[in-house]
């Protein structure tokens, strides 16, 4: 059931990203809700589930939106693995850590995208990219991290209650 719900979350996110989020750009920056979902799943479950979710989210984005297959899958998988590893004993009701991790993951994702997309082609204007892309992306994703994390947290809480109730009958 958890796999089906996670797949449904990924599908809804992908649909929103390709339809609604094109109309709510902020300084030409589209929110990266997939990154927020990967961080939330990684924090609420385990680093392995976060990495697997990140891989499939990134692979879906690579297939539909990307010019190369594998870059987003690799980046999201690394983000899912790293965000869930050291924070196994945090309070899920604490919203500061997810916002902080989403900000750090956004910086990592955008910087890696800059290196892969622009630096290898000889475009070295890092300060411009930092001011126009990275910092607005961090601010936008940090702002959206709270409501998206809350939704994923509620779904995870519901699933954990169902799993616990199912184990009682066996």
Can you give a write-up of this model?
It is a single chain. The chain is an all-alpha fold and 170 residues long. The chain has one domain (2-168). The chain contains six helices and no strands. It has helices spanning 2-18, 33-44, 47-64, 71-84, 96-117, 126-168. Helix 2 (33-44) runs parallel beside helix 4 (71-84), helix 3 runs antiparallel to helix 4 and helix 5 (96-117) packs across helix 6. The longest helix is centred in the last third of the chain and has 43 residues, at 126-168. The model has no long low-confidence stretch (mean pLDDT 87).
Enumerate the spans where pLDDT stays under 50 for 5 or more consecutive residues. Answer: none
Describe the main β-sheet briefly. none
Computed over alpha carbons, the radius of gyration is: 16 Å
Structural class: mainly alpha
Number of domains: 1
Distance between the termini: 17 Å
The overall average pLDDT, rounded, is 87
Helix content: over 70%
Task: Count up the helices.
Answer: 6
Can you tag this structure with a few keywords?
170 residues, mainly alpha, 0% strand, globular
Give the arrangement of secondary structure elements:
Blueprint: H1 2-18, H2 33-44, H3 47-64, H4 71-84, H5 96-117, H6 126-168
Helix pairs in contact: 2-3, 2-4, 2-5, 2-6, 3-4, 4-5, 5-6
